[in-house]
Design goal:
single chain, alpha+beta, four-stranded antiparallel sheet, three-stranded antiparallel sheet, 16 strands, elongated, disordered N terminus
């Protein structure tokens, strides 16, 4: 077996030309061979994995070696009938230096890379959004929500001073750890409420939970028309303009005889629809810039809050802006522009507002069928929904949904559910909302007996 020699070798190199054979894996019967010739100026390397040509039958190959100095060409027969590609590598160059040169050449082909950390993060986010898996996108979102951003976090020095003041006051008053932990209940992540109230409609007032401008802008006419006309109700259901839970409660509006109560119930359901639509939105809502129509006759995109209101299904900005201010943090995106970000605490607060509005619309008590319909709308487990209701001060009792007929016509077994009530007992109730709140946990319970 003889190699085809690269042109440009001197006469002295030709005389020193000799190859050492190396096996890639001697343990295997069939393995590629590497042939290396070490010269003063370069190393010549070839492998049998990819022969250039192979002679079969009576064909013969010769190798031509041309000397540039003398201009003569010397021919030699290719022993073994195989020609291999020969590559030359500089002998005096370190492999690390070669790798650095290669990386520099590759970077030059790709173009300049941004040195700004924010620009690199933006590029990474775009790649994940375009090609990342659902799990990778969720991890990226959790990492962004957990980042410390000055726009939505308190100053660390001032927070430390406040904690020091609280500890000093507790020490001066001689309060125990249990008493200090018990005061945590005074600052709960729930809607505006009256802890001393004994009646549910006084404990949570919609007028205290939402600004007057938002309540005045709520469109209850759509709910009233859908409650009176079956075709309007079907149209809303087909276009999915109103959440399914709200559509299931339209019959209560139709059955209400008192016009004043009917209008208030329709207003509550319209408010509930807006809250549910916002609860189902993404935790990161960027405001897009305006864009002209792509083609003649096409529709232009207004951008900003107007376009965001179309995407969320909340067409009235008088409703959207107060809700965004209450349950989102407005900040500046790394790529520029404005973005609304909802943290986990704000998501929980929005969920609590949903539950309070549901309780008000249902007369401050939920039967098992309504609880199950609400759980399905929120896409949560029954246990998680019950925990939130109890944080509001509700009494939750396990119950069973009545057995019925499944879609396939077979009888269905009774399903576990819950009945919910807030400050039951009517005017004779003396238990306050503060007394109905769950007790703050101050640590693990000590086991009785033993060590």
């Amino acid at each position: 077996m003889v190699l085809g020699v690269a042109a440009g070798l001197g006469e002295a190199d030709e005389q020193q030309l000799g190859f050492a054979a190396y096996a890639a894996d001697p343990a295997k019967e069939s393995h590629p061979m590497y042939l290396v010739s070490r010269l003063p100026g370069a190393n010549l390397i070839a492998t049998t994995e990819m022969p250039v040509q192979s002679a079969t039958g009576k064909a013969h190959y010769v190798v031509g070696i041309r000397n540039k100095r003398t201009g003569q060409l010397r021919l030699a027969e290719a022993a073994g009938g195989s020609l291999l590609r020969l590559e030359a590598q500089a002998a005096a160059v370190n492999d690390a230096d070669v790798a650095g040169v290669v990386r520099a050449a590759q970077q030059q082909q790709r173009g300049p890379q941004p040195d700004d950390v924010a620009a690199r993060r933006l590029m990474a986010r775009r790649l994940v959004e375009a090609f990342g898996s659902t799990r990778r996108k969720r991890q990226m979102k959790q990492r962004e929500e957990g980042a410390v951003v000055a726009a939505r976090n308190a100053d660390t020095e001032r927070l430390g001073l406040l904690l020091g003041e609280v500890a000093a006051r507790a020490t001066a008053a001689g309060e125990t750890r249990a008493e200090v932990m018990g005061k945590l209940g005074l600052h709960r992540n729930i809607p505006a409420h009256n802890p001393a109230a004994t009646q549910p409609h006084l404990a949570y007032k919609v007028s205290a939970m939402f600004p007057d401008t938002l309540l005045a802008a709520i469109n209850s006419g759509q709910i009233l028309h859908a409650a009176e006309k079956q075709e309007d109700r079907q149209r809303l259901a087909e276009k999915k303009q109103v959440p399914a839970y709200v559509l299931s409660r339209l019959q209560r509006v139709s059955d209400e005889a008192d016009p004043r109560k009917r209008r208030r119930l329709a207003k509550l359901l319209a408010l509930l629809a807006a809250l549910l639509q916002l609860a189902g939105a993404r935790s990161r809502l960027p405001l897009k810039p305006p864009r002209a129509a792509k083609e003649e006759g096409g529709a232009a995109r207004p951008g900003g809050l107007t376009e965001l209101s179309w995407q969320l299904g909340l067409r009235r900005l008088e409703v959207l802006e107060p809700l965004l201010d209450a349950f989102y943090n407005k900040t500046t995106a790394e790529e520029g522009g404005t973005v609304y970000v909802r943290e986990d605490a704000k998501r929980q607060l929005l969920l609590m507002h949903v539950l309070v509005v549901v309780l008000d619309a249902e007369g401050w008590a939920l039967a098992p069928p309504q609880f199950e319909a609400l759980r399905q709308e929120l896409k949560m487990s029954a246990a998680d929904v019950v925990v939130r209701f109890r944080e509001l001060g509700c009494i939750c009792k396990a119950a069973k949904l009545p057995a019925g007929i499944a879609p396939d016509g077979t009888p269905s077994a009774a399903l576990a559910s819950y009945s919910i009530a807030l400050l039951p007992g009517g005017p004779s109730n003396t238990k306050t909302l503060e007394q109905s709140f769950p007790k703050a946990k101050t640590g693990a319970k000590q086991q009785r007996g033993g060590r």
